[in-house]
Design goal:
Blueprint: H1 2-14, E1 31-33, E2 39-41, H2 42-57, H3 78-85, E3 100-102, E4 109-111, E5 121-122, H4 124-137, E6 157-159, E7 164-166, H5 168-174, E8 186-187, E9 210-212, E10 217-219, H6 221-226, E11 234-236, H7 237-257, H8 259-328, H9 335-343, H10 349-371, H11 389-396, E12 409-410, E13 416-417, E14 421-426, E15 435-443, E16 453-457, E17 461-464, E18 472-481, E19 484-485, E20 492-495, E21 517-519, E22 525-528, H12 532-537, E23 550-553, E24 562-569, E25 575-582, H13 583-591, E26 622-628, E27 631-633, H14 644-647, E28 648-650, E29 655-660, E30 665-670, E31 675-681, E32 688-695, E33 698-702, H15 708-716
Antiparallel strand pairs: 1-2, 1-5, 3-4, 6-7, 6-8, 9-10, 9-11, 12-14, 13-14, 14-17, 15-16, 15-18, 18-19, 18-20, 21-22, 22-33, 23-32, 24-29, 24-33, 25-26, 25-32, 26-27, 27-28, 29-30, 30-31
Organism: Equus asinus
Enzyme class: transferase
GO biological process, one term: spindle organization
Length: about 725
C-alpha cells in the first residue's frame, strides 16, 4: 500500500502542467468550463470580461488597457467584480454588455450569452484533482479539525454534507448514531467540498440528468423541453458517462500501449536538444571569431590612424618650437639680439665687417618676419577626422546570412501612429517566412538610441501600444524561416502625437442641421449637401441673401488636460472651418446662426479677415482655421510674414488638433509629418468642444483609433 501511495504522489506531481490556469498561470481556483471546453479560474473570467469591457468603452484613450489575456491580469475592485457577476449587468443603456472575450487557452473568441458567468459549469473534477495535488505538495501539512477547541486536533474525516473537517471525537459528537447526520457522506481530510448533486445553471432548481451531444455539455430536462437545447440531440447521463468513459479509457490504453514509442521519441528529443546546444555553442564561437577579426581590423586601423595623427602632431610642434626659439632670440640680451649686441663691441674694422655681413642678413630676415607674422604650422586637424558613417551603417545592418530568406519591407503608406502604432510590411516571398519579429525603440531628443523591444508576429502587421507621447520611435522587422533569420528591414521613424488621443463622435443633436449636413450611422463622418436648397435660395440674391456656415461639434467636451484628435478633409471640399470653441460661444452661434456674429468676420477668430489685425494678442473663446480647395490657410500674425504665398499651404492628408486646456493653447498639425502648422492662445474658461463648420460641398472624416478590432478589419479588407 505504501508503494501505491508513493506512486500516486509521484503521478499527481507529474501532472502539474495540466492544473495551471492559462490566464493567471497559477493553480486553478474554482475552475469554470468555457464553451470551447477549456477551463479557467472563476476570478480570471471576471477579470477578462472587465478588461475587454474597459477596452471597448475606453477605445482610443491613452489609458486603454491593451494587455494580453495571457499576461497576469490586474485585480479589479470587489465592487466591479460583484457587478459583472450579476446576470443582466451592464454599465448604462448606451453601453452594450460585454460577454465575448478571447479564451486564453486557444485564443478563440467565446461568447457567454445572456447569462454570462452564471451560465458556465464549475469543473468539479478538475477542482478535486487540484486539491489532491495541493495535498500532495504539502504532504507534511495536516488539515486540522474545524470544531475542536484550541488547540485543534488533526482531522481524520471531512463531511461533504457539512463542508467541514473533524477529528474522531468531534465527528462522533456532531454526527450522533441514530440521527439524520449519521447518514452524511464523509471522505478523508480535504478542503475541497463540492455539491453531491450537479444543478443546472439555466434552471437552478433542476438536477443535471442529460447530456447534449451537439453542445457537449450536461443539461436538465427543462433545457430539452423548452430551452436552448430543445432541437438538439440529447442522451441520458448514464449513457454519456458510459460512452465517454469507454472512449477515454480506450485512448489512455492506447497511449500506455505506445509508452515505448513515446520514450523513444523523448530520447530522440533529448539528443536533438543536446545537438542544438552543441551547434548553438559552435555558432557562438564562430560569431565571436568573426567579430574578433573585425576587432583586429579596427584595432589595426585605429593604430595606423593614431600613429599618423601623432606624427603630424610631432612635426607641427617641432616647427612651432623652432619658430618660438627664433622669436625668443629677438629679445634683448637673448639669442640673436644678444649676439648682435656683442658683435657691436668689436673695434677691429676688418673683423667686424667679416662677421657683421652675415649677421645683418639674419637681422633683416627677423625684422621682416615681425612685420608679417605667420605660424609655422596649422593647429587644425580637420584632415585627420575619421569618416565612419558608411561603415557604421554597414555594421548596423550586420546580421546572419539569410540563406534565401528575403528581407521584409515596411509599408510606409499603411503604417501610421495615432493612439497606438500600426506597423505593416510585405515580404517578397510571403510563403517562405514562418514568422516575423518586429523591433521598436524610442529615440531621445539628443539622438540617443535606447535598446530594442521585440515582439513576435505571425502575420504582416502589428499594433504597438503604450508608446510615449511626442516622441520619435524607430521600427524595423525581420523574417524567420525555421531557425534562420533574415537581415532587418530599413528602419521607419514615426512621431507620436503631442498628447493622448481624445476620442469623440459627431454630435447629432446640438446644432446639427440635417437639411444641409449628412451624418453617417457611425457618426464619424459628415458631409455638406450643397444642392437643391442652395439653388432655390439663389432667387433671393437681390434682397441680400447670403449662405451661412453649418456647424457640427464633438459629442464630448474638455475641461482639463492635454488632448489630441485628427481628421481628414475631403479634397473636393469648398470651405471647411475646424478648431475648438467654448460651450457659451457655441450656444451663441447655434441659437441664431444667421443673426449671430460669424467667426468668419469676428475679430481674431483665426481666419483671414481684415479686422483681425487690430487685436492679435486678445484671447478668444474659440479658434477656427480655414481649409478648402486643397489649401490650408494660416491666419495673419504680427510675428511672421503675412504675404499670401507664405500663408497658404497645401492641405495635409490628415490634420491634427492639439489642445492644452490648462495653458489655454491650441495647435494645428500636419499628421503625416507630425509638424505644427499654426499655434495660438485660446480662452479655456469654459468647457471646450471640437468644432467644425462647412459651406458648400465638403466632407470631414474623423480618424479611426487603432485597436485590435481595427487591425482585424484591415486584414479582412
Amino acid at each position: 500500500m505504501e508503494g501505491d501511495g508513493s506512486d500516486s504522489l509521484v503521478t499527481i506531481r507529474n501532472i502539474e502542467r495540466e492544473l495551471i490556469c492559462p490566464a493567471c498561470k497559477e493553480l486553478f481556483t474554482h475552475p469554470l468550463i468555457l464553451p470551447c471546453q477549456h477551463s479557467i479560474c472563476h476570478k480570471c473570467v471576471k477579470e477578462l470580461l472587465l478588461t475587454v469591457d474597459d477596452s471597448f468603452n475606453d477605445v482610443g484613450s491613452d489609458n486603454s488597457n491593451q494587455s494580453s489575456p495571457r499576461l497576469r491580469l490586474p485585480s479589479p475592485s470587489v465592487d466591479k467584480i460583484d457587478r459583472i457577476s450579476r446576470p443582466g449587468w451592464k454599465r448604462n443603456s448606451l453601453t452594450p454588455r460585454t460577454t465575448t472575450f478571447p479564451c486564453p487557452g486557444c485564443e478563440h473568441d467565446v461568447d457567454l450569452g445572456e447569462r454570462g458567468i452564471s451560465g458556465l459549469f464549475r469543473n468539479f473534477t478538475l477542482e478535486t484533482i487540484v486539491e489532491r495535488y495541493r495535498q500532495a505538495a504539502r504532504a507534511a501539512t495536516a488539515i486540522m479539525c474545524d470544531l475542536c477547541k484550541p488547540p485543534p486536533q488533526e482531522s481524520t474525516k471531512s463531511c461533504l454534507d457539512c463542508s467541514a473537517s473533524y477529528c474522531n471525537e468531534c465527528f462522533k459528537i456532531y454526527h450522533p448514531w441514530g440521527t439524520v447526520k449519521a447518514q452524511h457522506e464523509y471522505v478523508g481530510p480535504t478542503t475541497n467540498f463540492r455539491p453531491k448533486i450537479l444543478m443546472c445553471p439555466e434552471h437552478e432548481t433542476e438536477r443535471i440528468n442529460m447530456y447534449c451531444e451537439l453542445c457537449r455539455r450536461p443539461v436538465c430536462h427543462l433545457c430539452k423541453l423548452g430551452g436552448n437545447h430543445s432541437n438538439h440531440r440529447v442522451t441520458t447521463m448514464s449513457s454519456a458517462y458510459k460512452t465517454l468513459k469507454e472512449k477515454l479509457s480506450k485512448d489512455i490504453d492506447y497511449l500506455i500501449g505506445k509508452e515505448s514509442q513515446v520514450k523513444s521519441q523523448i530520447s530522440e528529443l533529448n539528443l536533438l536538444m543536446k545537438e542544438t546546444e552543441c551547434n548553438g555553442e559552435r555558432a557562438k564561437e564562430e560569431a565571436i571569431t568573426h567579430f574578433e577579426k573585425l576587432f583586429e581590423v579596427l584595432e589595426e586601423r585605429k593604430s595606423s590612424v593614431l600613429k599618423a595623427i601623432d606624427a603630424s602632431k610631432k612635426l607641427r610642434l617641432d616647427k612651432f618650437q623652432t619658430q618660438m626659439e627664433e622669436y625668443q632670440g629677438l629679445l634683448e640680451n637673448s639669442g640673436l639680439v644678444g649676439y648682435a649686441q656683442e658683435v657691436l663691441k668689436e673695434t677691429d674694422q676688418s673683423c667686424f665687417v667679416q662677421t657683421a655681413k652675415q649677421l645683418h642678413l639674419r637681422i633683416q630676415k627677423a625684422t621682416e618676419s615681425l612685420k608679417s607674422f605667420r605660424p609655422a604650422a596649422q593647429t587644425s586637424f580637420e584632415d585627420y577626422v575619421v569618416n565612419t558613417s558608411k561603415q557604421t551603417e554597414l555594421l548596423g545592418e550586420l546580421s546572419f546570412f539569410s540563406r534565401g530568406v528575403d528581407v521584409p519591407e515596411i509599408n510606409e503608406e499603411e503604417s501610421r501612429v495615432y493612439n497606438n502604432a500600426l506597423i505593416s510590411w510585405h515580404h517578397p516571398e510571403k510563403d517562405k517566412a514562418d514568422s516575423y519579429v518586429l523591433e521598436y525603440r524610442k529615440i531621445n531628443r539628443d539622438e540617443e538610441m535606447l535598446s530594442w523591444n521585440e515582439t513576435e508576429v505571425c502575420g504582416t502587421s502589428k499594433m504597438i501600444s503604450e508608446l510615449d507621447n511626442n516622441c520619435n520611435y524607430a521600427f524595423r522587422v525581420r523574417a524567420y524561416k525555421g531557425s534562420i533569420c533574415s537581415p532587418c528591414s530599413r528602419e521607419l521613424i514615426l512621431h507620436t502625437p503631442p498628447a493622448p488621443v481624445f476620442s469623440f463622435l459627431f454630435d447629432e443633436k446640438c446644432g446639427y442641421n440635417n437639411e444641409h449636413l449628412l451624418l453617417n450611422l457611425k457618426r464619424d463622418r459628415v458631409e455638406s449637401r450643397a444642392g437643391f436648397n442652395l439653388l432655390l435660395s439663389a432667387d433671393r440674391i437681390q434682397v441680400g441673401y447670403y449662405t451661412s456656415l453649418d456647424y457640427i461639434i464633438g459629442d464630448t467636451g474638455i475641461t482639463k488636460g492635454k488632448h489630441f484628435w485628427a481628421f481628414r478633409v475631403e479634397p473636393y471640399s469648398y470651405l471647411v472651418k475646424v478648431g475648438v470653441a467654448s460651450s457659451d460661444k457655441l450656444q451663441e452661434w447655434l441659437r441664431s446662426p444667421r443673426d449671430a456674429v460669424s467667426p468668419r468676420y469676428e475679430q481674431d477668430s483665426g481666419h483671414d479677415s481684415g479686422s483681425e489685425d487690430a487685436s492679435f494678442d486678445s484671447s478668444q473663446p474659440f479658434t477656427l482655421v480655414t481649409i478648402g480647395m486643397k489649401k490650408f490657410f494660416i491666419p495673419k500674425s504680427p510675428t511672421s510674414s503675412n504675404e499670401p504665398e507664405n500663408r497658404v499651404l497645401p492641405m495635409p492628408t490628415t490634420i491634427g488638433i492639439f489642445l492644452d486646456y490648462d495653458k489655454g493653447k491650441v495647435g494645428f498639425y500636419d499628421m503625416d509629418h507630425m509638424k505644427c502648422l499654426y499655434e495660438r492662445q485660446v480662452d479655456c474658461s469654459h468647457t471646450m468642444y471640437p468644432a467644425f463648420a462647412l459651406m458648400g460641398s465638403g466632407g470631414i472624416q474623423l480618424e479611426e483609433p487603432i485597436t485590435a478590432k481595427y487591425l482585424e478589419y484591415q486584414k479582412d479588407m
